[in-house]
Amino acid sequence: MAKRRITKLERDRMERILQLLNQEYQMEYRCFLNYETPWQLLIATILSAQCTDERVNIVTKDLFKKYKSIQDFAEAKQEELEKDIHSTGFYRNKAKNIIACAGQLLTKYQGEVPKDIDELITLGGVGRKTANVIRGNIYQEPSIVVDTHVKRISKRLGFTKEVDPVKIEFDLMGFLPKDQWILYNIQIITLGRSLCVARNPKCSECFLREECNYAKAEDKKPLVKKVKKS
Fold it and tell me: Dihedral angle at the C-alpha atoms of 197, 199, 202, 208, nearest 10 degrees?
């Protein structure tokens, strides 16, 4: 994909935003999914599709006690696994993908989670988002994870105009400094859960207010007075 041309004004503004994010949230790497091994994070991330990290962490707390190895998942009965992960939603597809993914890890990678993104996305239930979670958290490879928060807030900030997650990922990779990619994921997810929520974002409380295209546009909207019915 061709890189979009970035002006000096855009770059200066981006640097101010990153500085504010670093000041507010510090520069600590963290993962919102609980795991102890790379394969546990892989399965947890597959489960996180269309589901909150909080719910996934509740489910995996018991799931990883029952299925103690990648081989246990590869040999799992689909109907039983569906029941175990039911509350994460889309449980039929997720169970099918987890069993397939575990089998592939055993037969092709000796039970190890690969590092290369082209290998990761061949696994059952693994797209670029899941692959980048693994690369960033397990292998500390700079990566952009385009989840619902990163997608929404990156557009509000004016970092991308795209809708497709892959195009957003490449926009951000071409725009943000590489050493900020993983931190940006973490910081934006935190911002999206606290202030820049999907509906009724708390723009007046946000530390990015002066730099945010969305907040500025909201400020310009005329106030609509409600007329009381007689």
Answer: 60
What is the total residue count of the chain?
230
Tokens of 203: 């723009």
Amino acid at 183: L
Picking from 166, 146, 40, the residue whose alpha carbon sits closest to that of residue 98 is 40
For residue 147, indicate whether it is catalytic: yes
| Confidence class for position 28, pLDDT limits 50, 70, 90 | confident
Sign of CA dihedral 39, 41, 43, 46: negative
What pLDDT digit, counting tens, does each position of 51-81 carry?
999 999 999 999 999 999 999 999 999 999 9
Active-site annotation holds for 129:
yes
What's the pTM?
A: 0.87
Q: Could you tell me if 139 and 115 are in contact, meaning their C-beta atoms sit under 8 angstroms apart?
A: yes
Determine the average pLDDT of the residues in 181-187.
94
Residue type, 98: I
Q: One of 53, 84, 94, 147 is an active-site residue; which one?
A: 147
Q: Which of 53, 94, 129, 151 is catalytic?
A: 129
Distance CA 55, CA 87 (A): 8
Cα separation, 146 vs 1, in Å, equals 17
In contact, 226 and 43? CB cutoff 8 Å = no
In the block, tokens 């994921």 appear at: 185
Token reading at 55: 């719910």
For the chain, what is the total number of helices (H) and then of strands (E)? 12, 0
Go through the domains of the chain in sequence order and give each one's CATH number.
8-28+144-211 (1.10.1670.10), 38-137 (1.10.340.30)
